[in-house]
Amino acid sequence: MNFSFGALRFDIENEHIYLIGIGEVDFADRGPLCEVQVAGEIKDSHLGIKMVNSSEGHKLRYVQHTLTERTLEIVQQSELVRTVTTFTSFGDGNGIQVSTRVINRSAQAIVLEEVSALVLAGFAPLSCTRQLQLTRFLQSHHAECQPLTNTIEELGIFSTVGQRQARVAFGNVGSWSTKEALPQGILCHTDTQNALLFQIESNNSWYYEIGVKGLSLYLYLGGANASHGAWSKRLESGEEYRTVSVSLAFGKGLDDLLGNVTRHRRHIAGKCAPDALLPSIFNEYMHLSWDSPSAEATRKYAPVISRLGIQYYVIDCGWHNEEDGNVIYPYVGHWKESQKRFPLGVRETTDYIRSLGMKAGLWIEPEIIGCKCAEMLDFYDDDCFLSRHGKRICTMNRYFLDYRNPKVISYMTESIRRMVEDYGADYIKMDFNQDCGVGTDRDALTPGEGLESHARAYLAWIDEIRARFPDVLLETCSSGGMRMDYATLSHFSIVSTSDQTSYTRYPYIAGNVLAAAIPEQAAVWSYPVGTDMPGFTATAEWACEHISDEQIIMNMVNSLLGRIHLASHLELLNQHKLDLIAEGITFYDEMTPFKKVALPCMPLGLTRFDNTLVASGLTDGNKLLLAVWNLGGKREVEIPLCAYAPKSARVAYPAAPEYAIDCHVESGVLHLTFTEDVQARMLEITL
Question: What pLDDT does residue 163 have?
Fold first, then answer.
């Protein structure tokens, strides 16, 4: 019996159900939809630590499936477990979200060691390892969203008969879910250009694996397991466990694929009423106050910022402690206003910001306290902290709070209430600047289970805060983009993409970020007066001489495709340069209706840090807004746009004639002549 759900095709045969194809791609073989390893039960030998051939996977028998317009639920069972795999579609594009519940149907307790959210068994023949490419997105501080593409053969799986131990396995261990790589990958066949993007929606540990079974390849998607992430889960009789969710989207080539991914992500992304119009944001931190804001400084900066048309003004780290900014972090955690920096109270400053026509924001790092924060160390009990072997986990002078503990929830909820109602915050930046490692064994069978349950409790608390303060805009940041996953992004409407401090290096991140997050969520810094010189005090005279118009333009272009986070010593600029910034803010605001429906366009493909030409844009089918960066390459360049049928091109930002560069379309190719070696423009191309 065959049936379809969206682009997925299934077959029921001999008491088993199989996924047999995606779109026009037929799978090369058949195998279990999910794998479940129960401790003490037989797992096929001679497979190393691969996730397939689990104790229950091949034993699962089809029970039933329920199909509606938007969901498919498949029930299977063995003697020990029942699995319920749920597929959800949202109507446009072809993205599908999947998760699996495992229920202990035996009379005794069992321990799960491995559970997949989904397995694409036999999705490609073993013979295509040279044609099948995997693109990963590597992550690091200041170097987020960097693509690395290899064939499956280059990654170690060859088409030789008999080779079965090898696997292509990647994952994350710890509370920074994206510190080394995004939890996603793109599989593309170089001959047909059929492409699949998968993402694992976990805000902690996750794992995926490509391997060989029989004469075909499989893709395993899930969270942590016993071998990777020190995870196991005890289930009493009748108890159930739900996996992380994963999502799939399909396309013909990169832009078609990313279009379907973006449509899908828009359905699962976090949203809130105050973010509906994608308001512009100024944050004092970068190249300005850093960790030492003050009432005096804000009164100097805010009038200039308000005249640019900015809607939110955010005061970052430092509003809350008396210690100097260079030593503040070991002491944070009480989240009460600094009398030294704000002698009349933070509310006096946020009221002043509102008097200028802007809304006010404050920073917090709610998942930690400093190891020298005496007030909170006296307040919290031992079971309020993540710990291993009875010892609190401490990283870079921070202890980690356990959001399974009601005392933590109570204090942190009161902290947010105080920030909103007493201090006047309309916007809260939720930061998280360290990784706790494998997890906590307090109240858990294993550290991985403890981390997972804490991480889920944290997101549940975020939902409580969103419900209690629906008019407050919440941003998630993790030392830049170190937790840029769609478990987190389904609870927040804005995510920091990087803490990159160099505006000429940010294009390599901004040029790829639309593959990682929708444009409505992806926050990018713009710091026109960035100096990158610690201890240097800029002056208006210095800024007049050293901050060029082109530096301002590139900073603005960097942020226009996503969510602008303006920063730096703008009060030092003359009116001409401020007008350039104000024009960028106006252009950003005018883009909002377009940005909320447009899809990514990457005519040069994904970019890497050694590229000298970067191009990334958004299109709604009628026009294409394309950011183009020349980063030390040739001044005369060509960008192929044949697939979009371009008619004409113009410089959309900046619009003044003195910033014009030659740009025209000829035979489907965009021709550009830059006037400088390092330069950026936002182009509008009519299609």
Answer: 62
Listed residue (264, 295, 168) closest to 221, CA to CA? 168
Spatial distance between the Cα atoms of 174 and 157, rounded to a whole number of angstroms: 28
Beta bridge partners of 584: none
Q: Check pLDDT > 70 for residue 532.
A: no
Q: What is the CA radius of gyration of the chain?
A: 26
Q: pLDDT for 608-650, tens place per residue?
A: 999 999 999 999 999 999 999 999 999 999 999 999 999 999 9
150 forms beta bridges with 134
Which run of H or E residues covers position 526?
Answer: strand 522-526
Question: How crowded is residue 316: how many other Cβ atoms within 10 Å of its Cβ?
Answer: 23
What would the pLDDT profile of 394-443 be if each residue is shown by its tens digit? 999 999 999 999 999 999 999 999 999 999 999 999 999 999 999 999 99
Read off the DSSP letter of residue 423: S
Confidence band, pLDDT 50/70/90 cuts, at residue 44: confident
CB 212 within 8 A of CB 157: yes
Q: How far is CA 394 from CA 84, 461, 627, in A?
A: 38, 23, 42
Q: How far is it, in rounded angstroms, from Cα 83 to Cα 79?
A: 11
Residue 179 CB-half CA count within 13 A: 17
User: Dihedral sign, CA of 345, 351, 355, 361?
Assistant: positive
CA angle at 532 for the pair 529 and 537, rounded to the nearest 5°: 70
Residue-wise DSSP of 81-130: EEEEEEEEE-SSSS-EEEEEEEEE-SSS-EEEEEEEEEEEEEEEEGGGTT
Four-residue CA torsion sign, 386, 387, 388, 389:
negative
Q: Is 499 helix (H, G, I), strand (E, B) or coil?
A: coil
- Locate all alpha helices (DSSP H) within 434-574, ordered by sequence: 447-468, 507-510, 540-546, 549-560
Rounded to two decimals, what is the model's pTM?
0.97
> Phi, psi (5° rounding) for residue 289?
-80, -25
DSSP 38-52: ETTS---SSSTT-SS
| Alpha-carbon span 205 to 195, nearest angstrom | 25
Task: Say if residues 526 and 583 touch (Cβ distance below 8 Å).
Answer: no
Coil, helix or strand for 390?
coil
